[in-house]
Give the backbone structure.
Amino acid sequence: MSHIARSALIIAVFFGLEKALGFVRQVMMARTFGLSTELDTFNAANNLPDLLFILISGGTLGVALIPVLSEYLEKRGRPQAWELFSRIANLVFVVTAGFSILVAVFAEPLVRSELGVAPGFNAQQQDLVVELMRLNLLATLLFSLSGLVMAGLQANQHFLLPAIAPSMYDLGALFGILILAPEKPYTLGPVTLPALGLGVQGLVYGVILGAALFLLVQVPGLFYYRFRYTFGIDFHNPGVRQVLGLLGPRVMTMFFIQMVFIAQDNLASRRAEGSVAALVYGWLFMQVPESLIGTALGVALLPTISEQFVRADEAAFRRSINQAVRVILALTLPAAALLATGIEPVIGLLNFDAGDTRLVAWTARAFLIGLVGHALMEVAGRSFYAQQDARTPLYTAMATLGVFIILGVVLASAFGAPGIGLANSIAFTSSAFILLYLLTRRYPGILKLQGTLWRALAAAGLGAGVAYLLITWLPAAVRLPLPEVVAALGAMVIGGLVALPFILPELKLLLRL
């Protein structure tokens, strides 16, 4: 098994654990709050702190920092790489703290204005959003530092602790849901948990705890790679200037991408009650396979293709991108089709009523249409950042926001939350295809698919068809007394096994990536 494949497998396994814990977290949150106004306010309150984290550290700094750190590790050695890391860490902390203070001070107009987070909420809901948003900024500070540590470890080709970290966040969040938030105590077997009755505020305290655990679990990795801290920022340092040169366009790229999600909630706050939460849950079901396939492969790939570019090894760079795209197509097309077929009984685990279950199911299906595009974005975007080109993804992100707003207004009016999810899928899939097209302009022939697309489409159609027949026909025909969710999961597994022979060449390709 190749280094990239092994790293991607480690990331996927722990992402899978995180998604399992995340699903438990969402189930318990749904059982506690349902599709309620309280849960809508909690989700809306996350938007600006999440935006701040993503713009300054999360998905922004890592992608900008890893190519430069990889170059330093390749050409100058680890001590100088850690010096650069320290200077960027100091800058990130100062900037994050400053913007957190500004968001806290101006939280009310940011929530209440017509172009703000939740203009459709009533005054009481808006007050609660303001309160929760200010609390959430504490988690933002911790997440910003931990995202930076994650980038530093990944640049050193260490993926284990960064992969474990998200599960630590889920454990902290679960503590908030099970102990801090509920009025009535939960009973787990013979154990009755304490219930502090803090309501949605308890959810935010759990998030803060999870953010602290997210950071602390990665700290041993810094010691293992002999991290040495350096005071100061030093804007004259060539490495700092190099990172900032990538960071500026990357910040704007993530700003436009995150604005899509803020616009989603803006549109959803004007729809029926529970629409914001329906988008959150629908997105969650798409994000599970997207993280396990697209994000895991993209994260594992970036340090390697950055090193290949620095070494001017064009053949290896082409091969890595080509194989990654083929693997993503082969895995995501069948996954999207199978999940769309059998998802409704799984959503039933959230204990919603029939109407809410259908709403979340159709919203999830709308997002699943974009699974392939979102997963391809993970590789397509990183292929440009590996070349230290942050401007091309910026231009496509601007186009993504424009397409989403136009489609979102139209489709939200026609279909509500599912329409918003569909607009998201169309916008991001279009962006992924544009990036891949531009990549082929630089490297003609880099995306020769060699039959992958047709095999993946055949696998998706046949696998989903078998799953649909099993879900709708088999239980009644043979009178199996199976719970609906068990039958659905079993049907999806069998459908996946039917699809497997079609994509075996790509699975073998993954092992050689």
Observations:
- The longest strand covers residues 187-188.
- DSSP finds 21 helices and two strands in the chain.
